Amino acid sequence: MSDTSTFRDALARLARGHEVKLWLCRAEGRRWDFLWSVGAERLEPAELVVSDTEFAVFGENVTPELGGLVREEFVRFRSSAATRKETDLLGERQVPAGALYGIHTVRALENFPLSGRPVHVLLVHAFGAVKLACVRANRALGIWRNDTAKADAIEQACREMMEGRFDGQVLVDALQGGAGTSTNMNVNEVLANRALAILGEPLGNYARVSPHDDLNRHQSTNDTFPTALRVAAVKSLRELEEELVVLQEAFQAKEQEFAGVVKVGRTEMQDAVLITLGREMGAYAEAFARDRWRVFKSEERLRTVNLGGTAVGTGMGAPRSYIFGVVDHLRDITGIGLGRAENLVEATQNADAFVEVSGTMKACAANLIKVTNDLRLLSSGPEAGLNEIDLPERQAGSTIMPGKVNPVIPEAVAQAAMMVFGYDAVISHAASAGNLELNQFMPLIASALLDELELLHNACRILRLHCVTGIRANVERCSRFVESTTATVTALVEELGYERAEALVKESAATGKSLRQLAEEKCGIPARRFDELVSPEAVNRLGSREEPRSRGGEGAGEEQA
């Protein structure tokens, strides 16, 4: 067994000052056996950080930056143990003996220590599907007809990648030069070595299963990477759509719950007219309903793929039957209605579809910011603000002000939405910066798009679970504002006319008397009629029940009320 004590010390140093837990496990068949932990007493459910065929590190509360450092230490730990030698165009490198990745991945780790985050796991899973489609298309051509064991092993490896078994083996940084070549080769190496392990061959025996000649056969990074990104983005869009649906439904439930709560509506931050709290919640629900529809329609922009176009869209190096068949296999594997682009050259050059999809995400982010700002304002106070609603209390708000509870969920959601604005700008810049037959910034587009989709999904989820479902109306507070505000007078305009209603407002401000009292004293409007005019039924009604009676200047000779 490899000596892991030095590695443990290294992880302990990295974890110092962080509320993080790390576990080292060793492979035993198809399960991981716990060896030791940092920051925890026992093994708990956690996310995979990095792995090879022998060891895996799992973690809890691991930030992207810390995860990158853990992966660097893992590679150093495994390299200090047994290694294997691999060669490429530029020379030799030592690769950890148990690693499924190979020399190209090692060079990429050396060259691109940028974000500290590996490529998104959804992209890795989608790559597994793309590679499986390519394998099946090649098998249909008779490739490996004399070595079905190899083909079966490669297919099994691809399926396992789709299931997420190799997330800890695809280590290259999300930001990388080469238009995604490092990601493609990391995937190819992992799949080739996994196939070798299935066949009982030593890792790195590329004469038996080659990352290039077998896993990259009739392919290029320039058609597999964008296709994998589209598949990953479609799956992420569907998850976001599901979350938007339940967020919409949560606001619709509040619309029904608060239908009878009359309150002051405000325009330009000033008292305006009466509305109900239910109608405000219904407006939020409708905004997210539009977002759901836009997200649903966005999938159409991603279903056209350039798989089969190879390097520049001409299909160079790929048989015509492969080009016409590979997308059909991918459609069957993913269950997504994918189609081959009519113009593969154009589809390889341009990335504007990702800009369009990102623009839809920005619209969703704009709604999230607007709605969460409204929720914060409506709950402000509690004593010196509006305080028309109470948000669920999630945590103590201050280290110096006792008893303060802040609207942390709306604040966090708004920050995530602001990040989406930034991601959208990045995607726009990257898509516009391609040159001639290829956009070399696809890794950046992939990272930003998948991150913004995940951010929006998580933001909608916590807004619903930790905020919207627990909103309570402060009915007494809303009623007090209705009784004391000049906004109520708008409900009297049809009865009195604008000028007489305006006079009531001035007298109310001067005398301190309520509009309800003055309407009866000065205008003869009974209290019962006043209450009818400001009732939930009247406020919720679309327009007036009947044509307004004539007022001053309208209808000659008629006596004014």
SSE inventory with pairings:
Blueprint: H1 5-15, E1 21-28, E2 31-38, E3 47-51, E4 55-60, H2 64-80, E5 83-88, E6 91-96, H3 103-111, H4 121-140, H5 148-162, H6 181-199, H7 221-257, E7 262-267, E8 270-276, H8 277-302, E9 304-305, H9 320-334, E10 339-340, H10 344-349, H11 352-378, E11 389-390, H12 408-432, H13 442-466, E12 472-473, H14 475-484, H15 493-496, H16 498-511, H17 515-523, H18 527-533, H19 536-540
Parallel strand pairs: 9-10
Antiparallel strand pairs: 1-2, 1-4, 3-4, 5-6, 7-8, 11-12
Helix pairs in contact: 1-2, 4-5, 4-7, 4-9, 5-6, 6-7, 7-8, 7-13, 8-11, 11-12, 11-13, 12-13, 16-17
Characterization of this structure:
The chain has 561 residues and is an alpha+beta fold. The chain is built from 19 helices and twelve strands. The protein has helices at residues 5-15, 64-80, 103-111, 121-140, 148-162, 181-199, 221-257, 277-302, 320-334, 344-349, 352-378, 408-432, 442-466, 475-484, 493-496, 498-511, 515-523, 527-533, 536-540, and strands at 21-28, 31-38, 47-51, 55-60, 83-88, 91-96, 262-267, 270-276, 304-305, 339-340, 389-390, 472-473. The strands form five sheets. It has a four-stranded antiparallel beta sheet with strand order 2-1-4-3. A two-stranded antiparallel sheet has the order 5-6. A hairpin with a 2-residue loop joins strand 5 (83-88) and strand 6. Helix 6 (181-199) packs across helix 7, helix 8 (277-302) runs antiparallel to helix 11 (352-378) and helix 11 (352-378) runs antiparallel to helix 12 (408-432). The radius of gyration is 31 Å and the shape is elongated. The termini are far apart.
